[in-house]
Every structure is written in C-alpha cells, then in structure tokens.
Amino acid sequence: MLPIQRRRIAASFWLLVLALGLVLVHLYQIQLQGYKYARQAFQLGAQNIALEQFTRGEITDREGGSLTGGYYANRVVVFPALLKQKEVQLQRLAAILNMDTEQLKERARQGAFYIDRTPTGSICAELQEAKLPGVIILPVYQRYGSKPLAVHITGQLGKISSREQYAQLQSTGGKNYLLGDWVGKSGLEYFYEQQLKGTQAKRWAGVPVDARGRVIQGPGLLVDSMARDPWRLNVVTTIDGRVQSIVEEIMDRNIVTGAVVVMQAGTGDILAMASRPNYHPEFLHAMSSMDELPGELFIDQCTALFQPGSVFKIVLAAAALEEGLVQPTTLFDCAGPAAQPVRCWNNAGHGRITFQQAFAESCNPAFVDIGRQLGAAGIIKYATALGLNKQKITGYPVPANSHQDLALIAEPYSLANSSVGQGPVLVTPVQVTAMLNAIASGGKYYTPRLVTGLSDDSGRLVEQYNAEEPVQAISPATAARLGALLHEVIASGVGKKAAQPGVESAGKTGSAQVSGYEEDKVDAWFAGYVPVENPRYVITVLVRGGASGGDTAAPLFREIAARCLGVE
Fold first, then answer.
1. What b/e sequence results for 231-270 when a residue is b if at least 16 CB atoms lie within 10 Å of its CB, and e otherwise?
2. Alpha carbons 552 and 523: distance in angstroms, whole number
3. Superfamily of domain 241-277+303-565
4. Which CATH architecture has domain 73-142?
5. Helices in 261-386 by DSSP H: which ranges?
6. DSSP class per residue in 446-457
7. Which residues cross the membrane (predicted)?
8. Strands, DSSP E only, in 46-151?
9. Which of 314, 426, 465, 544 counts the most CB atoms within 10 A of its CB?
10. Are 403 and 374 a contacting pair, CB within 8 Å?
C-alpha cells in the first residue's frame, strides 16, 4: 500500500471516531435535556408539589452524612383537584387539623400543598375514617433535624428579601429564582448557593390536569421519590461527624460563649469547628424579626479575632529557638508583680528561672525579655511564618477581617504587650489550631481546609478542592524542641489539667485580659495536640469569660481529646 493511501485511511478513521464522539455527546445531551423537558411538560399540565422542604443539595461531613440532620417526616398533603366536594371536604379537613377553614381554602386556590407539621396518631385515624379524596399522608424530606451540626459553618436560609438580591441571583450561575424563594443567607448555604440550588424536585407528587384544571382520567396520583436533579450538587466538607458531635456535646455542657476547633494532625483538614452561643436554623424560619436575638448568636467564634494571651508565646519560643537566642537552660529573672513593663501572673515571682521553666510556667517577664531581643520585626516574621496573618480556609471563603495587622506590633509601646499576646495581637481559633498543627507536623504549615469538593447524587466528587502544598515554617529541629516544651506545660507547668492518664499530650495555655469582663474573668485558651508521638488531633479551646486557660480551657481539651481517641 502506498504511503498516501495509508495517510488517507488513517485520516478517514479519525474522522469517523470524531463523528461518533460528537454523536455520543449529542445523545447524552438529548438524554439529559429530554428528561428535563419531560418533567417540565408533566409539571406544566399537573397539580404537583415537591416532597422536599427545600429543593437543595446537601451539606455533608467527610463520609457523606448530612450535617443539617435531614430526615423524612409524614405530612398531610392536599390535592384540591381531586376533591369532589371542595367546600365541604375542606371544612372537614380544617376541623380534623384544628385549622382555619378560610386559610385552607386560600391555599387550595393556589394548588397542591402540605401542612408543615407531623400529624398525630389520632389525626391519622380521623383522616383514614374520613376518606377525603385528594388528602393523603406522604413522607416529606425535612432539611433540619433536631440537632444539626456545625450550624455556623453550614449557615442558614432566608427568603429573597429585595429586588436587588433577586437580580443578583438571577445574573449569577444561570439558575432561575422567584421572589420569595429560600436562599442561602450565611455560611456554606450562602457561599455555595448556586451549586446547592436545585432546578427540580427529586421527590414529588402530582395529579395531571388539563388547561381548565380538570383531572385527566387514567394516571391518577403520581408519586416519585427517586427522581433526579443533575443540576444540584452537594457540598462535601472535611468535618468528621463523630468528632463534631463530641465537641458540640461537651461545649453544650461547659461553654456559653467560645469556640472549639479540631484539625487532623499532619494535614490542614478541619475535623470539627463549633461556636457558641448556638442556634437552630429552622427556628429562624418562623420568626418575623431577628432584631431581639443576641448579637453574638450568628457570629462564628472560630473565625473571629481575639487576643491569644500566652498562646502567642509559642511564636516567640519558635523564633528564639530558631534564631539561637535561647536554649532550654537559658536563665531569666522574674520579679513577679514588681516586674516592668509587664508584671507576672505569679504574685510570688518565679525568681531565677530557665527558659524551659518559663515556658511551662508561662512567665511573662521572661517573654517580654525575649521579645525585646527579637524585636518587632523578628516576632512579625515568625508569626507570619506560622500563619497568624493568613485567614484563608480552603473552600470556605469567609472575608478576611482587616483588624488583624501584625505590623501593629512595631508601633510605639506595643512590643512588651505583644510579647505576651496582648495589645494589638489578634488571632482566630482556626489560626491558632493551624499554628499548633505546624509544630505537630515537623514545622510544616498547612493551610486549613474545610471543603473537600462538590458531589453529585451518586456521591461522586465532580469538583475537588485540593489541599495546598505545606510550607516549611520552622525547621524540624525547632518543631521538635517546641514539642518538648509544649509537653512540659502539661507534665509540670500551668497546663496540668489537660493531662490524661496513659496518653502523652502537648499544649499551651492562654489567659487574655479583655475589657468588659468581671475583674477575675478572661478569654481562656488551651491549644495543643495528642498524642505527642504520631499526633492525630490538634485541638484549640477558647472559653470567653473563663477563669484561666489552665483552669477553664485545659480540662475541656483533656475531655475532647480523650473522647476523640476513645480512651475515656
């Protein structure tokens, strides 16, 4: 065969392959669009209702479990087109349900509807006896269970409140909205509104009617609980549902206002993230005004800024060790309450104290001295390396708070207070957790990640948010020495109440003095990791208005760590 013939045959072959590929793509589109149009055709000629509280994708934990606690509940569903004596039968229904007849009539004029409450056994019995045509009890999917998890992360829904919001939603993402639709107002519900929003119900029931609203004889009532909506997606988080449940249970018993963050050691994946005070998203739907609710109810304390107190001494210790300014045996002098410019919490003073002891005992004068040696530039350098200027969380685009500005450490008269985590130093609990994770991970800083990706109905990830590559923030040797110091805090220092039998852990207390509290109250911190060898969990506890980091936050760290490890 001549070369020119071979080339022609090869060209013809690839043209056929291309043509076949185009045909297959077109057939796939026809299948999808055909399904869509068939549904729309039925719904245009039907009195139908979605058997879902909200036509939206799920927000799940790392294993696919619903964080909102979605479940099925029986509802009384009414199809007015099937009522043969509408006036009489709606009156009977109103009497059974103890509802206003006119209200039911008004709803019936608008088409099929359901009563948004679970019927009691006696109501079910009365309905069965009444045998009202067009009134049936069907399971309707409810988005929120009695105890939804991580509500500050998942966020809340609310109705489109203005034409401006409506126009913005219509112009973003190509999905259709109506005034009065429920949309994401905060958290992941808000950030992923376009991905979560469904275009058609996956669970629905309907009665085919003609142009005059008369029932078309034959098909009767149609119910579909296995329908597809290829245009809605689920948001898959890194949250571990078991760990999140443990954290929230412990917080509900011990923390009125505060935050807990748990991160998987050796990665930036957030396993739990909870804020108090808490709220239930569904209860907000029935409220006409939220003006009387506490202002902090909707604040995610995990991503809010706070003074870290002595937790910030980790930064100074890392800098001093990395720069060779100190050794564990380096000596400092502590004059207690007479120390200037920052007194020590220890009214007796620590006297002559080693760097290792100063870290374990959280001695303020020693760290003011270290801060003076490092200078503002040195502190800022290592605070930046350890992520205390980075508010990014992969998959969770919370706007950065501009009040965080490490450059303020260099302002006049700020160095001493900054050295003990007061003054202009502000951090979030997520940032503190990532800093401790860097120490537990051999000095590598991992950007926190909250969202793994987006999944379809089958659970397959159709879009993935990969974790960022870690950055070596401090040397492995410095991280190891810091780990030993953090372990000493619990073994012999101010963090003894974080210790648990049989499991070695490491961590640091913090007690930040905040205006507005009673004289003996502080923002109480404890941040650490467990176990010391091959760490699994990095945990940060913040209790606002506590006694101290060692007395208030450390015991909660111990309980959370023990429950996570299963060593209670």
1. bbbbbbbbbbbbbbbbbbebbeebbebbbbbbbbbbbbbb
2. 10
3. DD-peptidase/beta-lactamase superfamily (3.40.710.10)
4. Alpha-Beta Complex (3.90)
5. 281-285, 313-322, 355-361, 364-385
6. ---B-EEEEE-T
7. none
8. 46-50, 59-60, 71-78, 113-115, 135-142
9. 314
10. no
The CA-atom distances, in angstroms, between 355 and each of 226, 334, 364, 428, 512 are: 65, 11, 11, 27, 21
Residue tagged 């030993």 (tokens): 484
Burial class (CB in 10 A: 0-12, 13-18, 19+), 299: middle
Q: Within 13 A of 260's CA, how many CA atoms are on the CB side?
A: 33
SS3 525: strand
Report pLDDT digits (tens) over 137-182.
999 999 999 999 999 999 999 999 888 999 889 988 788 998 889 9
pLDDT, tens digit, 9 for 90 and up, residues 467-512: 999 999 999 999 999 999 999 999 999 999 999 888 999 999 999 9
Pairing mode, strands 59-60 and 234-237: parallel
3-state secondary structure of 15: helix
Q: Residues in the chain, how many? A: 568
Looking at the domain 58-70+146-237, which fold is it? Penicillin-binding protein 2a (Domain 2) (3.90.1310)
> Rounded to two decimals, what is the model's pTM?
0.88
Q: What angle do CA 188, 449, 446 make, to 5 degrees?
A: 160
- In CATH terms, are 58-70+146-237 and 73-142 the same topology? yes
Backbone angles phi, psi at 151, to 5 degrees: -65, -30
The domain segmentation of the chain, as residue ranges, is 58-70+146-237, 73-142, 241-277+303-565
Distance, in Å, from the CA atom of 219 to the CA atom of 210, rounded to the nearest integer, reads 13
Residue 301 corresponds to which amino acid?
Q
Q: Which amino acid, 360? A: A
φ and ψ at residue 265, rounded to 5 degrees: -60, 140
Structure tokens at 264: 């998987």
Q: What is the DSSP string of 177-219?
A: --TT-EEE-SHHHHHTHHHHB-SS-SSEEEEEB-TTSPBPTTT
Give Cβ neighbours of residue 42 (< 8 Å, ≥ 6 apart): 48, 206, 208
